[in-house]
Design goal:
By secondary structure, the protein is an all-alpha fold. 82% of the residues lie in helices and 0% in strands. It has helices at residues 2-27, 38-47, 49-83, 85-100, 103-114, 120-142, 147-155, 160-195, 204-213, 217-245, 250-253.
Length: 255
């Protein structure tokens, strides 16, 4: 019952927002190329489901692959940065520089490296995009251990490995999961924007571009809805894993 009560406001707001959207479009006779009605988007979604399914799962797969690569590299970099100060001082500027690079700059470079139709270009762009937030948050978490806790383990002659596994990593997990939730949305954004710059037609980015170019805006919005659904799915999956991994944390116990 408590979980239902937690979800009820969001459901009411969502349904109410759709109703308001539909009413405004109909009341003011807003053209479809400006803002299609939710009913028109739903109809286009049903009619284009076969094409959307193929394009959506292709984009989703490359986004998840990029997220996995970027997260793995970010975790390794964060562990090294937290362990050795020179690495941290040298890696942080590079991470900031990578995060400051616009996607529209990375996309043509990735295309020239891997080719227009290769999925590896999208994986590269997504990996670069998610690397920074995961690394920064995890480093902060690894270094957040209190002095009293470190002194207690030191009094037991704990090795650096024991301190890492018994104190630093458990304390850093909430930071890691928070970063992964942000990175999940960034991965889909990065994948779709990268696909705007060329690639297989069976990708959401190219699908949206082609439909918008043909003034089929309901179909383009249907693709956006599918991308949003994938983003929500990844976010919820990470949230479930978080509940299973750190049930002891205050952010989980208070939900």
């Amino acid at each position: 019952m408590t979980r239902l009560q937690n979800w009820l406001p969001a459901a009411v707001l969502f349904i109410g927002g759709l109703g308001l959207w539909e009413g405004i479009v109909r009341a003011f006779s807003i053209k479809g190329f400006i803002l299609p009605a939710p009913s028109a988007i739903a109809l286009a979604f049903a009619e284009e489901w076969s094409a959307l399914r193929v394009a959506g799962f292709s984009t989703f797969a490359t986004a998840i692959a990029g997220l996995a690569v970027g997260a793995t590299l970010a975790v390794l970099a964060a562990l090294a940065a937290a362990r050795w100060t020179p690495v941290r001082e040298g890696a942080m500027p590079l991470a900031i520089a990578a995060n400051s690079t616009p996607i529209i700059v990375l996309a043509p470079i990735a295309n020239s490296w891997f080719g227009l139709r290769s999925a590896w270009g999208t994986v590269l762009v997504v990996a670069v995009l998610v690397f920074f937030p995961i690394m920064i948050n995890l480093v902060k978490g690894l270094l957040s251990a209190e002095t009293s806790q470190l002194e207690l383990l030191d009094s037991y002659a704990a090795t650096d490995r024991s301190v890492l596994w018994k104190l630093r990593l458990p304390g850093a997990l909430p930071y890691l999961f928070s970063a992964l939730k942000v990175a999940a949305a960034l991965s889909l954004i990065g994948a779709i924007v990268k696909e705007y710059f060329g690639g297989s037609q069976e990708r959401l980015g190219q699908y949206i571009t082609s439909k918008a170019g043909l003034f089929q805006f309901e179909e383009a919005w249907a693709a956006i809805v599918l991308a949003s659904a994938f983003g929500i799915l990844v976010y919820l999956t990470i949230s479930i894993i978080e509940r299973m991994a750190i049930p002891w944390h205050v952010s989980i116990r208070n939900v």
